[in-house]
Amino acid sequence: MNQEKIAEMEQIIGTDYTNMAGMVIRKDGEAVYENYFHGCTQTSRIHVSSVTKSILSILFGIALDKGYIGSVDQKVLDFYPEYTVKRGEKTIQNITIKDMLTMTAPYKYKCNPYTKYFTSADWVKFSLDVLGGKGTVGEFRYAPIVGPDILAGILVKATGQSVFDFATENLFAPLGITVEKTVIFRNKEEQMAFYKATDRSVWVAGPTGVNTAGWGLTLSPVDMAKIGQLFLNGGVWEGTRMVSEEWIAESASEQSRWKQRDLPYGYLWWAGVDGSGYAAIGDGGNIIYVSPERNMVVAITSLFYPKAKDRIEFIKEYVEPVFEK
Predict the structure, then answer these.
(1) What is the 3-state secondary structure (H, E, C) of the chain?
(2) Looking at residue 174, what is its pLDDT?
(3) Is the pLDDT of residue 1 over 80?
């Protein structure tokens, strides 16, 4: 490794990426870099925002492998027989799990109704109530927070376990990742404090106890790098298959496309990053970047910060030149 380039990279982090909390790089299956910034340490746990979605995607792959779910082509409402469809509503009846995983399900809102969602008594039901409408099934519609909880509810109904318990048993524990508990916020102040905390090992749940699907998980960059390595290994960790190679391939390849930004999307993973690469990306600069071409994983956690600088650009310009050989 070029120590001068590493020093230059870390200087850039200190001046231009001031909310970066930690970074771990794995190359050829081994950890080659680990460092922490701005008061964070190896014990820090950061809210990784939408990286949570990509973790949920893995759980769906595992649930399919184990036979809890028959197919991604199953209709969403098959898992919610108790849900009453409003009169005249037709679109929602045709939406599948795959539509949810590829962000091609329509919603009835133009602007994300965060206040109504967070103050509702059931985040899953609220998401079902805004699913469908006059939009077209099959067209990309990114749903940051309001909507993905429907997938979490499906996982609970299909497996008979909480998302947290299913993840702990089938993903976290085998990878040596510790997420200590589920947390439910009692008020807005607790939620805002969570966003800024660096010492909470949790997965957020809504008022009914269903863990969030689009946000709410805290991890370390070491944890995230393991997830990336699992994908790079085609679903195998230390000789044990944890999720099918087919699911990894489908998740990491283009299943839909955000036409306005010309961005390909897989199953809750951003596909086509720098050709064969792909990534789990969370607001504020959290990322698991996987490059099969370079046999490399870059995992970055970042403190709560609006409009953070692009991490892919940082990785391409400052990380890969140091560790590509």
Answers:
(1) CCHHHHHHHHHHHHHHCCCEEEEEEEECCEEEEEEECCCCCCCCEEECCCHHHHHHHHHHHHHHHCCCCCCCCCEHHHHCCCCCCCCCCCHHHHCEHHHHHCCCCCECCCCCCHHHHHHCCCHHHHHHHCECCCCCCCCCCCCCCCCCHHHHHHHHHHHCCCHHHHHHHHHHHHHCCCCCEEECCCCHHHHHHHHHCCECCEEEECCCCCECCCCCEEECHHHHHHHHHHHHCCCEECCEECCCHHHHHHHHCCCEEECCCCEEECCCCEEEECCCEEEEEECCCEEEEEECCCCEEEEEEECCCCCCCCHHHHHHHHHHHHHCC
(2) 98
(3) no
